[in-house]
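Predict the structure of Transcription initiation factor TFIID subunit 5.
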Amino acid sequence: DRQTLVAVLQFLRRSNLRESEEILRREARLLGDDLRGSAAAVASSSPGVASVAAVPPGKGGLRRGLRGRCPGREIAPSWRDPWALKAPCASPSLGGGLGHKGWLGGAVVVEDQPDVSAVLSAYNQQGDPTLYEEYYSGLKHFIECSLDCHRAELSQLFYPLFVHMYLELVYNQHESEAKSFFERFHGDQECYYQDDLRVLSSLTKKEHMKGNETMLDFRTSKFVLRISRDSYQLLKRHLQEKQNNQIWNIVQEHLYIDIFDGMPRSKQQIDAMVGSLAGEAKREANKAKVFFGLLKEPEFDVPLDDEDEEGENEEGKPKKKKPKKDSVGSKNKKQDPNAPPQNRIPLPELKDSDKLDKVMNMKEAARRVRLGPECLPSICFYTFLNAYQGLTAVDITDDSSMIVGGFADSTVRVWSVTPKKLRSVKTAADLSLIDKESDDVLERIMDEKTASELKILYGHSGPVYGTSFSPDRNYLLSCSEDGTVRLWSLQTFTCLVGYKGHNYPVWDTQFSPYGYYFVSGGHDRVARLWATDHYQPLRIFAGHLADVTCTRFHPNSNYIATGSADRTVRLWDVLNGNCVRIFTGHKGPIHSLAFSPNGRFLATGATDGRVLLWDIGHGLMVGELKGHTDTIYALRFSRDGEILASGSMDNTVRLWDAVKAFEDLETDDFTTATGHINLPENSQDLLLGTYMTKSTPVVHLHFTRRNLLLAAGAYSSQ
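Done. Here is the predicted structure for Transcription initiation factor TFIID subunit 5.
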């Protein structure tokens, strides 16, 4: 802080260390007479350079404000101070009225949509339009001539600077300069920004900018770059020497530079992490504690079947197994240290039917095949033939007895895939005649006359993009382009509720693994958490910069993962609505998510044909699986987590060795602090098999309780 600095300068003067004193004063921008009036403010000599208040140790990071300009925006420190070695503070902007979505102290503060004119007016301060190409090519020349270790890091500046300089020219109506600037430099940008550049090239007049969402996103969210301190100092020195204020202003106004200490990252390490709409995630965004462990299973007695006992006797084994089987859940008596408290969020009580189902599950699990590189699962493919209605969504019940398809003709179709047909409950008049005390009352209430293997549910008024069965198989969710999520009864095959909250198409919905709660995500860029007995959402998760394309519950139901067209994946805490993880690295919209059964890892798939693997606890990317050549719409871990299956629009199902992918992870403190991830060069040694269909894109995957892999898709005749 200031007083410390003054004391150090006085000490240097007393010790006759004039040269050191001069250097420090220059770095800190302190003029000679400021020493006398030590209460005077720290003066900045170069225009638009930050005044920095150092925070005492333990108070966390730096709080920064840009003097005389946009108040309260975070910018990179302009001199080294004793405590600036910490990661820059990632607090939301303090008072900057640019429509930031900030998370303050657990409460969600979503400011109103940014006022368009306020957002754009930041482009008013401008330099000489004819010099923009010169500024940019000067910086380009400097970066390309810098040392290899810095070049990769500083090259990240090209794209955000290019966009902002172009938009600034367009906004100030220098259309011909903007056009020539675009044509000269757009070819230098990384290939994964092509789609964004296509949108940008259509913005050629000031009027076009007013209603353009992409434009506003870019303007209102600071583009995050992660750069080592050495590279940053190099850049700053260059811009100050060249008096290149135009670029320096953009860097301070529109970029957030997350500075770390240590070796600069390699081109390969940077490429793995960048590519999203707003750059990388700030490291602060992935620091919060996440309870990724599993909840303890409730214990209850399991009646032993006669056949089980006989089976044991036949084999001539002693009946050692019996006491073990008496209470379900005895195997995980010990609480997982990473699990959330059992009552952290209220979960529904287990009904008798749930307990029966758990018993069935345990029995099936005992007969489960242990998968691995030597023992791959059989795959059963359900092909929807003649699906001229256009198959848009599929789900399969946990016990693999029913399959549902959502279609573009707005119908939801449910099939039984076992010999047992689907039946509705009898009418009220018939039900009154039934003896409620009889043992087979649940059988008697079903109406045999309604038995069929297919039921069609009508109600939506647009294509159905997502479907999800409840864990107890009594309910079914569907979401549609009509902006609603519908809850259907699988007892009566009628619609019980229509949940209206999204104003635009809803792309995905999913039940919690415990039932009762469900999540939906849509074109309005937010995900919503609902409970089946509430008309209104319980939580609204806002923060994505584009459509929320897929949603998934964590196995412990305390967290929700959302994938978005902004090319990021976020993890949200159900308890307080906070965003606790932001994962960047995909180069296209994300369309599939899968949590590993132990809750520690997340797999994500996107239009870029890559599957990325994430360590949730450390907030790090730990793997990249390359092989698919088209969008990945389906991801699923086997029941024990040994194998990850991925299904794609390239008509293949691929199986990956999950055990090998997650072993010997580098999650030491250094990796976590700097994000220096080292992915194996080749993911082919993790690929266990590739299975082609004739001409059927894979839209859903499901492992049965015994680890048979079911896949589904609609045959396409092209």
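The radius of gyration is 29 Å.
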